[in-house]
Amino acid sequence: MKTRAGVWARLRAFLLRRNDPLVPDTTIGPDRSRPVLVNVEGANDIEFLRRTSAILHRADNSIVDLAELEQRRRLVFLSFGGGDLRSWAFRLAALGHPEFHLYDRETPPTSELRRQVVEVLNFRGNCRAFLTGKRAVENYLHPDAVRVSLSWLGVRKTLTPEQKAQAAESFGAEGEFLSAGKKLLDTRHPAFKAVTSVRTRLLSFWKGITLPYPESGIRLIRQADIASFDVQMTTLKAELDEAVERLDAHYAELKSAARARLGTLYNPADYPQSLRRLFSVEWDYPSVEPPNYLQQLSPELFAQEQARVAARFDEAVRLAEEAFTSELSKLVSHLAERLSGTEDGKPKIFRDSAVGNLAEFFDRFRTLNVRSSQDLDDLVDRVQRLVRGVEPQELRSSESLREHMATQLAGVQSVLDGLLVDRPRRNILRSPK
Questions:
Q1: Cis peptide before 291, with omega less than 30 degrees from 0?
Q2: Starting at the edge strand that comes first in sequence, how are the strands of the sheet with 218-220 ordered?
Q3: What is the pLDDT of residue 421?
Q4: Fewer beta carbons within 10 angstroms: which end of the chain, N or C?
Q5: Quick check: 39 and 78 in contact, CB under 8 A?
Q6: Residue 386's Cα: distance from chain center in Å?
Q7: Secondary structure of residue 15 in the 3-state scheme
Q8: 3-class state of residue 128 by DSSP
Q9: Number of H helices, E strands in the chain
Q10: Alpha carbon of 376 to those of 207, 212, 214, 329, 386: distances in Å?
Q11: Alpha carbons 15 and 22: distance in angstroms, whole number
């Protein structure tokens, strides 16, 4: 079976075998000037290989970290940009570097042409070429899970016992019964708000393209969305880094303001030298299924792990139902409340987003729905038919339309309330210690 492990096995064998003439021996000085040229289709493939090799290297250090080899100048990535591969069969030959070519299979007739090019490349000395068994290299990733981890500077700090005792004196209280803290930086500063804004958009994107999973920090993602997810997260990471750089430029100003506001509570030791690298985001694609080797080592334990994973996926389905039901309930409830009754004798004011948010929900539900609840599917269809073609301005100008819409939405809301009441409480399953 062709898996991502097969791809990395080829790369590892190509880059690490000491007796392979394509691999420069790191003990020989002149070979350092001839790094391996790795030719792939596009920038996304390069980023994919860098990130995934780093993840796999952490789990198995016999798998190379390609970014590390780049830094050591033992490897250079090239991108041919798609299209006709025939010109690449000999394009790099005159350079005399070892070459590794990894091409997406694609569909006929392109796949046959690429197979022929790969055969030509493999006839050349100092060169290896492979065609993926799948249409794109990203498809070798596990399709189910993505984990996002945020590292964020804390801006609040608990007062010391002495400080709490001093604060308690003014109230005639005992310090040990007082809970008090100080705010180290003004988070209302535009530069700090810009950093927080990126985090909000980042988490919103992650949750908007994935489904919940009963393990903290992990969500389920469709395989077809992995490439676009990685690209957008890379963009947001760059935006976060830029925002943190701008915030760091105002750091002295923020510390000066804190010194003035905190008075004797200000302590220079509470503040790091720089804010760089104190705000970061990382993501990876953990496996949520038992490893295949476990089946050979202990079939009984493998069966137990399979049952545990099946239970988690069953829980994930219920969590997805619950999340969609709760979100639809909030959207319907808000629009119904805005459309019913009056304020000061006039129709209530509502924003276009009250209708637009429903349209966004329908798109996301259609993409991520696992079709596990016919009741929820019917309710979503009912609301979609109700608001289809209705413009916010029509609702503002037509009292009869508002009343009709409010009545229908109230009926939907009562059914949604019933679904939410019937849901059992969900537990987050923690990884075994």
A1: no
A2: 211-212, 218-220, 145-151, 280-284
A3: 66
A4: C
A5: yes
A6: 33
A7: helix
A8: strand
A9: 14, 12
A10: 20, 17, 21, 11, 15
A11: 8
Beta bridge pairs of residue 127: 99
pLDDT at 15 > cutoff 50: no
Q: What is the pTM of this model?
A: 0.59
Rounded to 5 degrees, φ, ψ at 209 are: -110, 0
Q: Which helix (H) or strand (E) holds 145?
A: strand 145-151
User: What's the fold here for domain 4-140?
Assistant: Rossmann fold (3.40.50)
Q: Are strands 36-40 and 75-79 parallel, antiparallel or unpaired?
A: parallel
Which of 88, 102, 76 has the alpha carbon at shortest distance from 7?
Answer: 102
DSSP 8-state class, residue 215: S
**414 vs 426, higher pLDDT:** 414
Mean pLDDT across the chain = 80
**272: Cβ contacts below 8 Å, ≥ 6 apart:** 153, 278
Closest to 15 in 3D by CA, of 94, 86, 87, 72: 72
Q: What is the pLDDT of residues 177-226, one digit of tens each?
A: 888 888 999 999 999 999 999 999 999 999 998 988 888 889 988 877 88
Strands 218-220 and 145-151: antiparallel
Cα 372 vs. chain centroid, distance in angstroms?
24
Q: What is the maximum alpha-carbon separation in the chain?
A: 88
